[in-house]
Amino acid sequence: MPVTVVVGTQWGDEGKAKIIDLLAESHQIVARYQGGHNAGHTVVVGDQKYALQLVPSGVFYSHVTPVIGNGVVVDLPTLFKEIDTLESRGVSCARLKVSSLAHLIFPWHQSHDALSESGLGENKIGTTLKGIGPAYADKARRVGIRVGDVRDPKRFETLVRERAIAEQKILAALGGEKLEIDAIVASFTKFGERLLPYVSDTVNFLHDALDKSGDLLLEGAQATFLDIDHGTYPFVTSSNPIAGGACAGSGLGPRDITRIVGIAKAYTTRVGSGPFPSELTGELGDKVVDIGHEFGTVTGRRRRPGWLDLVMLRHAVRLNSLTEIALTKLDVLDTFETVRVCVGYELNGKSLSGYPDDAQLLGEITAKYVDLPGWKSSVRMIRSYKDLPKQARSLIELVEQHCGVPVTMIGVGPERNECVVRE
Ligand code: GDP
Ligand code: IMO
Ligand code: MG
Questions:
Q1: Whose CA is nearest to atom 16 of ligand 2?
Q2: CATH code at 296?
Q3: Atom number, ligand 2, closest to the C-alpha of residue 220
């Protein structure tokens, strides 16, 4: 299994990092391929909990080289804070490689994000305000500054100053706050120097590793339904989290990828605005949020809860060519009398044949459910599939029947070893 992609199948926070950490043990490289510090990836090792935003989730193994691929947008203050925090806790980041082709985030991107959100008022996207969309917009406009630009410090300084002056004018016209240009240039010149040892030709590095039969893992951030093309536009992020994006964002080719693991929670959550057919309000929703600790790792916002949606999951199987599904957070449903699963959509009394191509419609459809009896016992100590309660196995078998791919891993707790891996 030389190249594995791990991708979120819902709206993010499915527990990707926990599964990546688990799989990383048998891989030599873990590479992020898109997104930026909008991601919040939690890994629990023993009594230690780590929240990663940019550093790949394989960093906890000394045999793994963590790579930030060309498709990522990199916020240097966050990256260095994360490295410092990890190293102060005994986790070495010395092996980290950052693609010379990755784009950098600057303070003006955050200003644009905030202005755009406040301009949208009630229709705001609910972004993480990290400047992700504006940084990708600059990449597309071909005015971005890239990681490799720090290799020539004088030129880098000039690029930052020129861009800052240009952005100052745009922001002033939009009513934004003034940029402290000299302070930004000074701090980014320092960040640039610090970045130098990490800058790398990651595309050739990944291919060379593959040539030597290395096992590579590509770490998706965000998720399928936050994908800029296939998600619930405009309530999406600005990159392609789907497995197809893993090629563009790493430089590996489609034929290099052999295994694609889709991560789905046993229920669903979403942070920020946008349609959510199986959304669960009221007491049961609060119960999911309380037991699942569904608060954003990055922004602290309460995540909106809902039932597992197999119409979405089946569409995610198609969009990502999933070879398998990892179903996480099964334990969160331990005390539920009934576990609901959305198996179809109806619009104006008519069933839809699949996931609609119009996010507007998604806001109007009625979710059709099957109710499964809950198992009402703790699954946290269970490590083998046959030991799971039969009601939990029924849920997993329903997922497999509906989606046509096997569920190979089942999360039963936040810690590294709290997982049922099916042989
Ligand atoms: P990611 O963004 O997809 O990596 O997911 P997050 O880290 O943002 O959110 C997942 C949360 O659920 C984290 O707090 C994890 O520690 C936790 N988690 C992951 N898998 C499980 C599981 O199987 N059971 C429970 N109870 N928690 C889990
Ligand atoms: P991980 O990798 C959940 C959401 C934001 C917002 C939308 C656009 O931890 O699963 P952005 O700042 O990207 O422009 O915001 O996307 N969002 C996430 N939601 N998990 C994430 O990452 C997310 N990253 C972005 O809440 O709705
Ligand atoms: Mg997260």
A1: 237
A2: 3.90.170.10
A3: 2
Pairing assessment for the beta strands 350-351 and 3-8 based on DSSP bridges: unpaired
What's the rounded mean pLDDT across residues 103-112? 98
Residue range of the domain that includes 242:
3-99+207-259
Residue among 268, 270, 328, 417 to mutate when testing ligand 1 (max atoms within 8 A of CB): 328
**Would the CB of 134 count as within 6 Å of ligand 1?**
no
Please give the pLDDT value at position 353.
Answer: 85
Give the chain's domain count: 3
Is the pLDDT at 147 greater than 80? The verdict is yes
Give me the CATH number covering residue 243. Answer: 3.40.440.10
CATH code, domain with 184: 1.10.300.10
Residue 284 sits in the same domain as residue 416:
yes
The answer to whether residues 211 and 358 belong to one domain is: no
CB burial readout 89-115, b (16+ within 10 A) else e: eebebeebbbbbbbbbbbbbbbbbbbb
Given a contact cutoff of 8 angstroms between Cβ atoms, the answer to whether 40 and 13 are in contact is yes
In a domain, 202, yes or no: no
Sign of CA dihedral 341, 343, 344, 345: positive
Ligand 1: centre distance to CA 14 (Å) = 6
Atom of ligand 2 nearest to the CA of 14: 10
How big is the CA angle at 404 (ends 402 and 406), to the nearest 5 degrees?
Answer: 110
pLDDT band at 1 (very low <50, low <70, confident <90, very high): low
Q: 245 and 277, same structural domain?
A: no
Q: Which residues surround ligand 3, an ion (CB under 5 A)?
A: 13, 40, 297
What CA–CA distance (Å, rounded) separates 193 from 251?
A: 26
Does residue 220 carry a pLDDT above 80?
yes
pLDDT tens digits for 27-86?
999 999 999 999 999 999 999 999 999 999 999 999 999 999 999 999 999 999 999 999
224 close to ligand 1 (CB < 6 Angstrom): no
* Residue 93, domain member (yes or no): yes
The verdict on the CB of residue 414 being under 6 Å from ligand 1 is yes
pLDDT single digits (tens) 251-297? 999 999 999 999 999 999 999 899 999 999 999 999 999 999 999 88
- Indicate whether 161 and 299 sit together in one domain: no
